[in-house]
Design a protein that fits this description.
It is a single chain. The chain is built from two helices and seven strands; from the N terminus they run ββββαβββα. The chain is α+β, with helices and mostly antiparallel strands. A three-stranded antiparallel β-sheet has the order 5-6-7. A two-stranded antiparallel ribbon has the order 1-2. A two-stranded antiparallel sheet has the order 3-4. Helix 1 packs across helix 2.
């Protein structure tokens, strides 16, 4: 079991997203991998699609994925809670991490579509 790096949900496998931590750029110039559950990936993608690239975010804080301080956008996550079921919370993610999440989302959904069609063209 592994945990989602945004909501903390323990699942058998997470979806790897490459982020570039500024403090580790010399040790890991190709970036480091963070794992997201499908719910957090979908929510992050919704935020990515809703932001206007020309509009500057008025939120200045620290990105939860890469730790970079600067302009961030709120991503709504669902934290599992045994007493309340699900707690909705907003976390801050920078544009660079949202771009990386978008690339991962496109690749992940493409793999899902390819996996649902077998070699004979039948959907499963």
């Amino acid at each position: 079991m592994t945990d989602c790096d945004l909501c903390g949900k323990a699942i058998p496998a997470v979806i790897p997203v490459r982020v570039f931590r500024s403090r580790l750029k010399f040790a890991y110039p190709e970036g480091v991998w963070k794992g997201l559950c499908e719910t957090c990936l979908d929510s992050s993608q919704e935020t990515y699609l809703s932001i206007d690239k020309n509009e500057i975010s008025c939120r200045r804080n620290k990105c939860v994925l890469c730790g970079k301080k600067g302009r961030v956008y709120p991503v709504e996550i669902q934290i599992p809670d045994f007493s309340k079921g699900v707690i909705r919370k907003k976390v801050n993610v920078c544009t660079k991490c949202l771009d990386s999440i978008n690339e991962t989302y496109i690749r992940f959904k493409g793999e899902q579509i390819e996996g649902s069609v077998c070699e004979h063209g039948h959907e499963h």
